[in-house]
Amino acid sequence: MEQATCEVCPRGCRLADGEDGFCDVRAGQRDSVRDLYYSAIAWPGVRVRWGADVTWGFSGMRNRRVAEVYLPGCNLKCDFCVGPFLSRIGDIRGIRWIEAADLVRAAAGLVDVMAFTGGEPSIHVEYLESVMSQCKDRGILTCVETNGYMTRSTAEKLAKHANYVGLGLKASLDPAFYKQKFAAETQPILGAAKIFVESGCELILTDLTDPNLWEDRQAFETLVRWIVESLGSETRLALSSLETTERTHVTSQEQRQAYLEKYQKIATEAGLKQVFFQVDARKRAEERREHLEKIGLYRTLEQLGISPSAQQW
Predict the structure, then answer these.
(1) Homologous superfamily in CATH for domain 38-303
(2) 158, pLDDT greater than 80
């Protein structure tokens, strides 16, 4: 049976006609691979709020209205994911179709920045290219929050349009951790980070480093040295603890704060000038989940003046 190779992420899934890839988003179609959810925004779709509430310190997003666009599926599938209802297709409810042009047209004049999150947005690279190019034409800035696990070609496509990139690392990008947890290599993530910086995107790295999950000072020091040498000492690094509400923390909040402070000191002593952290993000995660479950797609889109089509997965 003829197979096609997906070139969006380093897994390079070879897919026969109708066969789904690892991410459950991309599938074989004759001699190509397509995005099953192209134009699909995961319920609840779009949320508009102030940039200061969205992420850590993007200078250009302060005091701006940001539309968060949630896209389904993921190519890592962490067992500690804060949003499994988005990253795992089987748990997503109420997906509706909406075209890129409709989304951008409705947002124009109402928001300053459109931020794509999920799930993992990079696996929807064709949709992102379409939306972000139209945003640029209308003067809307764009942000991508990604795990960074993508091919060079995908990174280059996103970097061409994105103004801001939040790249989330797990366990200080420890190769052994990534291999064991995700069956994934870390080199493509480092390569993507370099591409974003070289393209002029404003980049913030976040590092999920939590004593309940992992601890390896040597791996962290290796990561920091690479950041300083390859991306520059001004690169912002945000250290965070586990956000997932399903996992019980063994250590106290005070212990985790001391842990993050220790790693912050290591990073600054190694030459990074902007290292900060969020001590306990569980409350934020719970509030986000509660909001996602309360606010419906139609209500949000109606606020933006969008009328989704009747087609539904």
Answers:
(1) Aldolase class I (3.20.20.70)
(2) yes
